[in-house]
Amino acid sequence: MTGLISAEWLKLHSVRSTRIVAAVIAASIAGGAALTWYVASMWDKMSPADREHLSISSVEELTLSVNQLCFAVLGILAMTGEYRTGLIRSTFAATPARGKVLAAKAIVLGVCALVVGTATSLLTYAVCDAIIGERPIRFYDQPVDLTALLTAGPSTLMFALIGLGLGTALRSSAGAIAAVVALWYVLPIVAMNLPSPWDNRIGAVLLTRLDPQLAGVDLAAKYGADGMPGLLLSPAGAAAVMAAYTLAALIPATLSLRRDTR
């Protein structure tokens, strides 16, 4: 298994898609820093009365969204890329136990997603906090909620494994990416337009709402807005739902590999 993991690591860091993902994530950190600098410069030029209406939410939420999508796509391409190029035949010839191939890809992708997701969140906060300094800008997190920052890692991990599962089961990059976008963007919009209380109840178990609940963050209390979702799941409940999403993607992927005749 160690050799298989080494092979999957070699594949991952040698393909162009990994370098593109790294560049996009780096650009998101730079973009978050630029946005923070812009808001801080506006703050310095405003009167005390105008400053009460200026706000900036956690920039880490922006970089987390980028990480989630990037690693979901990377997970998809980790399998569909091999099918597209025909390399999958060599992979299965070298390792007939196809479940081990999927497990090795999941381990490599999962570790990378966990490390990069956590590091990006911490780095984004460190850079933006240095820019904001002592400015008491509304909604900006001071002092830092370390638990909320650290949930970026498990959330990114979940998206990476969901992408891997969808890519394996569907064997189509376009179809799997469309499915991820539906889960990440379309379903939350649908849930938001449901009548109360179902908008909040269903929305609580959707992918993009799990990381704040994993950290125990009540968005309604944090932002003081009636339209914001409340905290419905405990951290343990959110972790269980994240695990369920991951298994729901990987189990069909495993069954699909066993039926594959290549």
Question: Can you tell me about this structure?
Answer:
- The chain crosses the membrane at residues 20-40, 62-81, 102-126, 146-166, 173-191, 236-257.
- This is ABC-type transport system involved in multi-copper enzyme maturation permease subunit.
- Pfam families: ABC2_membrane_4.
- Keywords: Membrane, Transmembrane, Transmembrane helix.
- It is a single chain.
- This protein is an all-alpha fold and 262 residues long.
- It has one domain (2-259).
- 78% of the residues lie in helices and 0% in strands.
- It contains 13 helices and no strands.
- It has helices at residues 2-14, 16-45, 48-51, 60-85, 87-94, 98-132, 146-150, 152-170, 173-192, 198-203, 207-214, 219-223, 235-259.
- Helix 2 runs antiparallel to helix 4 (60-85), helix 4 (60-85) packs parallel to helix 8 and helix 8 packs across helix 9.
- The mean pLDDT is 85.
Averaged pLDDT: 85
Number of domain units: 1
Compute the CA-based radius of gyration: 20 Å
Helix content: over 70%
Question: What is this structure's SSE topology?
Answer:
Elements lengths: L1 H13 L1 H30 L2 H4 L8 H26 L1 H8 L3 H35 L13 H5 L1 H19 L2 H20 L5 H6 L3 H8 L4 H5 L11 H25 L3
Please name the defining characteristics of this protein:
single chain; 262 residues; mainly alpha; 78% helix; 0% strand; transmembrane; membrane
Task: Give me a quick take on this structure.
The protein is an all-alpha fold. Helices cover about 80% and strands about 0% of the residues. The chain has one domain (about 1-260).
